[in-house]
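Feature request, filed as a ticket because there's no other form

It would be nice if the structure record came with a short human-readable summary line next to the tokens. Right now we just get the raw output. Example of a typical job, pasted below so the devs can see what we mean:
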Amino acid sequence: MLYEGKLHPYIVSLQKSRFLETAPLGGNMPDYDFKIPVEDASYPDWSAYAIKQISAIMQDAIETGNNKILIHTNLKRGLPLENINKVAGPFVEAWALEKFEDICEDANNPYELVHVEAGARLDVYDVLLQFKRVDRGDYVSSNVDVKATAEDIKGSGKSPNITSYAVIRTEYVNDRDFLFLILSLKHRVFSEKEPKSGMTKGIMEVRSYNVYDLKYLSDADISYNPALGHGQIQIRDIHYVSIVTRTTWEFCQLLDRKYLNSSKRTEADFHELAQGHGWIK
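Raw output as currently delivered:
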């Protein structure tokens, strides 16, 4: 229940530690009997493995020249490059999905990728990837959010919406080993006219990438935008992030602090969310 006339000790502890990455979060919370997820001891290894495999796939695609998307148009002026970023994103994200699917078709692929699944419209992930580690015989499942940004547009990649605060917080409670990775793809677009046909060939080229675990992003990299439903978790700059190792429960508390630091959110709002999404026993 809510404390009458004062904040709950959990809320106070979060507010006191708002600027301290290593500060103890939470404490004695008798009225908020939280479900506290405790991840498997192998989680850091699973996370590092999935990042390594996805990075290898992207790197190999770039090095072998399999990083281009061709678009043919009969527009005399070619592609409208000043606004192409509005449509380039979905193309690049579709390219990534196809790369994963093509690799998975080979049962003996060197990346140990055994299953690829495209996310539906309201899924938290864009692509679900499952790897089977030959050396250990175990499986690693990773939920991947693909973000495409333009190399030549200033400000591209700044503060993109990643996912809903309530949705991602709930995922970590329901699955203590929930692995959510960000795959950032930086691209550029150019065009050339084919002399015989007069058609313009647009080329979208994936130039670089970055892969990281959302749970391990530093406090400074993560922000909360109260717009859209219960609010969105954002990354301040998707191209440049710092990594901090933490537990699932520590990350849940970090998200709670971001939520409660918003002037548009109250403890009553938080309590309603916690009850409604099953964060409390």
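Something like this underneath would help us a lot:
Residues 51 and 125 are 15 Å apart (CA to CA).
The two ends are 13 Å apart (CA to CA).
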